């Protein structure tokens, strides 16, 4: 040990007093070992060291030496640079994983935290004391209960307008079943998530969501007891109708804490996903949705747990063709006199499998289906048909023809037939008038008075 001041810890300072008493012969080796909690052999070794080197022998031998496994200065500087640079906002654990994957730096999360604390770089991912609530055990089987929600956030950190991430997570395993970005929380985002889940895993038994009007009608709580006793029911929403056709039970959560698993997922994704989108230089919503496919697989392999029961509760996928017709947005229209319907400012005709135009009964109901790929279809009398848009000229001509058919023809001047009673009375009157004897007027007699 180099010459100079020797700094001892509190524990080592106690040894100094006992060793001085031992050197003076006041206490024995056995008594010193009992006081310091060391073996007699260690006491003898310390006594020999004090005789040879003085009190410095009581200090730890590695004091002042740099450990062989210590993190190098270059690595520390790189970690600090990453924390304020491309990995800004990542947690200690996530940053450790990213450096291992992209930069070849193998350090633990605790080491990252210690280095950043020494550099006075704060970490926003601190654990708060949770509020005491009654916990609910996970479901025993995968696919038994799926939690569904959306999170509006600045996911691309200003590189694009704010987006809303729709997602679904399994209650039993914590596995992400679907993720999809949309400009706002809407029906289309949830339908994309549902389609991902059914195609990749199957049809779940139940879905757990909040009371958003996308899921439940706002009139659901306004029915009186008398209306409920009469059997009246509020119409299902578009999403509720899709779940009903797939045979999925829809459960309404009364608080955010009730679906805490997906709420916790948003907190994790707002840390991890944002950083990975930044590393991949994602700047558009379309590229972000493409990125989510690989991200889901990596996330599930890292965080998903095993369900208590090895069997799965999913039902079989109904098939791509049936799924295409079920998971869609429906709008109801009525057919015109020209076997056409109007949708989205355009006029359409229904085509059968052979490409022939389907005749429609005037004012008959037609359900227009807008699918997730943007295509259109129609349901009429229980059958599915394709739609064909009519050009503006054809549309105008069809409208004119329809107006001509509907427009009342102007009524001309009525002329009764010759044998009509009116004609007979007029003819007879005229004939009688012609045969009636005419008497001359007084001026025509020339002073001759007619006999009385």
UniProtKB/TrEMBL annotation:
Q: List the GO biological process terms.
A: DNA integration
Segments of this protein annotated with the region Disordered: 400-452
Where in the numbering of this chain does the Integrase catalytic domain appear?
138-326
Picking any one GO molecular function of the record gives: nucleic acid binding
The record's annotation in InterPro entries points to:
Homeodomain-like_sf, InsJ-like_HTH, Integrase_cat-core, ISNCY_transpos, RNaseH-like_sf, RNaseH_sf
SUPFAM superfamilies from the xrefs?
A: Homeodomain-like, Ribonuclease H-like
Classification via NCBIfam families: transpos_ISNCY_2
Protein name per its UniProtKB record:
Integrase catalytic region
This chain's source organism reads Thermovirga lienii (strain ATCC BAA-1197 / DSM 17291 / Cas60314)
């Amino acid at each position: 040990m180099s010459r100079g001041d020797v700094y001892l810890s509190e524990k080592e300072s106690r040894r100094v007093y006992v060793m001085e008493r031992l050197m003076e012969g006041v206490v024995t080796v056995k008594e010193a070992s009992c006081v310091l909690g060391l073996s007699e052999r260690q006491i003898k070794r310390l006594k020999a060291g004090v005789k040879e080197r003085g009190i410095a022998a009581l200090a730890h031998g590695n004091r002042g030496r740099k450990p062989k496994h210590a993190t190098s200065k270059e690595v520390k500087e790189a970690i600090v640079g990453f924390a304020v640079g491309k990995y800004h906002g990542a947690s200690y654990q996530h940053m450790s994983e990213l450096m291992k994957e992209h930069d070849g730096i193998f350090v633990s999360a605790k080491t990252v935290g210690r280095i950043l604390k020494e550099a006075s770089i704060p970490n926003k991912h601190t654990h708060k004391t949770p509020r005491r609530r009654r916990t609910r055990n996970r479901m025993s089987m995968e696919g038994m209960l799926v939690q569904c929600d959306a999170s509006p956030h600045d996911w691309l950190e200003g590189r694009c307008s704010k987006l809303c991430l729709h997602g679904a997570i399994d209650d039993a395993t914590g596995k992400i079943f679907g993720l999809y970005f949309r400009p706002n929380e809407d029906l289309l985002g949830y339908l994309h998530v549902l389609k991902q889940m059914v195609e990749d895993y199957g049809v779940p038994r139940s879905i757990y969501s909040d009371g958003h009007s996308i899921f439940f009608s706002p009139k659901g709580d306004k029915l009186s007891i008398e209306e409920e006793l009469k059997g009246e029911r509020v119409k299902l929403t578009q999403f509720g109708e899709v779940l009903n056709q797939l045979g999925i039970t829809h459960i309404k959560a009364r608080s955010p804490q009730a679906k805490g698993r997906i709420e916790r997922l948003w907190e994790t994704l707002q840390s991890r996903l944002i950083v990975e989108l930044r590393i991949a230089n994602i700047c558009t919503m379309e590229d972000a949705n493409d990125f989510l496919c690989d991200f889901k697989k990596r996330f599930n392999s890292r965080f998903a747990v095993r369900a208590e029961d090895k069997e799965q509760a999913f039902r079989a996928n109904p098939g791509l063709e049936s799924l295409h017709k079920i998971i869609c947005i429906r709008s109801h229209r009525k057919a015109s006199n020209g076997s056409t319907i109007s949708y989205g400012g355009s006029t359409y005709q229904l085509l059968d499998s052979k490409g022939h135009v389907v005749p429609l009964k005037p004012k008959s109901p037609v359900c227009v289906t807008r699918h997730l790929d943007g295509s259109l279809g129609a349901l009429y009398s229980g059958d599915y048909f394709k739609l064909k848009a009519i050009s503006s000229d054809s549309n105008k001509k069809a409208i004119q023809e329809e107006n001509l058919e509907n427009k009342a023809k102007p009524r001309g001047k009525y002329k009764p037939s010759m044998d009509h009673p009116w004609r007979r009375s007029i003819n007879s009157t005229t004939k009688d008038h012609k045969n009636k004897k005419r008497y001359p007027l007084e001026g025509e007699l020339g002073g001759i008075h007619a006999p009385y």
